[in-house]
Amino acid sequence: MRREELERAASTLEATTAIAQALGGETDLDVVLDLIVNRGRELVDAQWAAILILDGEELELRATAGDMLMRPIGKRYSLDDTLAGKTLRSGAQRTVSDLSSQAYEGERERVEALGAEHALIVPLEFRGRGVGVLMIAARPGEPAGFDDEQERLLHGFAASAATAIATAQSVAADQLRQSVASAERERRRWARELHDETLQELGAVKVLLDAALRRRPEELEPVLTEVRRTVAGSIEGLHRMITELRPAALDELGVEAAVSALAERRRTEDLRIELSIDLDWERGRRSTRLAPEVEGTIHRIVQEALTNVSKHAQASCAEVTIVERDGQVIVDVSDNGRGLGSSDTHGTGLGLLGMRERVALLGGRLDIESPSGGGTCVHATLPALPADH
């Protein structure tokens, strides 16, 4: 008897350690759910286990383990018409000894096919808020279902599981908010571009056309020539903005071609831009390209950095270096301009905040340095995720 207690204590410690590891490092919700459902089943040697996550007024089946036929993953259940929903509303752990007769009507046949009649339904709560339900079914050969000790183990396990789930959900929500905020800043930026350039140019065209209508036919040629010139400028400006949003060269030819074209557009008589690019796919060292989100982030970093250089730095030279090595892509953009203020180096202006968000979403790092002697260096380290990751 003493040995069984020790084995159960060791099993409990192992399961709790696994959840602690999830809390300490893993923030992907699906990974956390799979870990919880498998550890929970192993903890009491159950036939099957399932986790349903609260979404509005419904529970969604998100993860299963063992001999579990209540699929497909993603199936949704009403809170009011299911045992799981009623358990979550009550906040009290529920023991079920006749699972097939109490099962939701649409799932009764599947439950009966499993052959499990004894189940434990445990609400998952974090700081008084329900996040989901853990369901554990005893093996058919266990006529009494779960004993008191097993119920206590699962109750304690559920508290750690709920914390892990809430943490992962919070991280996902923060990432979504960052993504939405970044997109909103991009929209505002392009709205300003359209207002300050294209709309003003089109307004000028209208003024010219209005003036032309008041002129004699022989006086129209110079007005129409000016209209043509203005429209051509507007078309060129729109083409430039479309290219800035997502250059075709990036999708079709890769990072090197897109960054080279970008540098060419940014070069002027007063600004020299030097490039050094060494990426595995472009150099033939790997058969697959980098993931689209990685390539897009590389291009956006260089784009934002060079925009800052050309508009604000008063620099005569900028250097762009992109190197792939040891599973990482290193991006450096430096200039010899006037440098940034102390607040700007923390990413609060000049498009730097958007760069930080993009890099963070990939799990990379962005550093911005502006030495006292002048100049600015944008340094990013990104994971070299392949296109099929």
Which SSEs are present, and which pair or pack?
Layout: H1 2-24, H2 29-43, E1 48-55, E2 58-66, E3 76-78, H3 83-90, E4 94-96, H4 99-102, H5 108-114, E5 119-126, E6 129-137, H6 148-213, H7 220-245, H8 248-253, H9 255-266, E7 272-278, H10 292-313, E8 317-325, E9 328-335, H11 352-361, E10 365-369, E11 376-383
Parallel strand pairs: 7-8
Antiparallel strand pairs: 1-2, 1-6, 2-3, 4-5, 5-6, 8-9, 9-11, 10-11
Helix pairs in contact: 1-2, 1-6, 2-6, 6-7, 6-11, 9-10, 10-11
Question: What structural keywords apply?
Answer:
11 strands; Beta-Lactamase; 389 residues; 2 domains; alpha+beta; 20% strand; Heat Shock Protein 90
Notes on the protein architecture:
The chain folds into 2 domains: 2-175, Beta-Lactamase (2-Layer Sandwich); 249-389, 2-Layer Sandwich (Heat Shock Protein 90), CATH 3.30.565. The protein is built from 11 helices and 11 strands. The chain has 389 residues and is of the alpha+beta class. A 6-stranded antiparallel sheet has the order 3-2-1-6-5-4, sandwiched between helices. A 5-stranded mixed sheet has the order 7-8-9-11-10, covered by helices on one side.
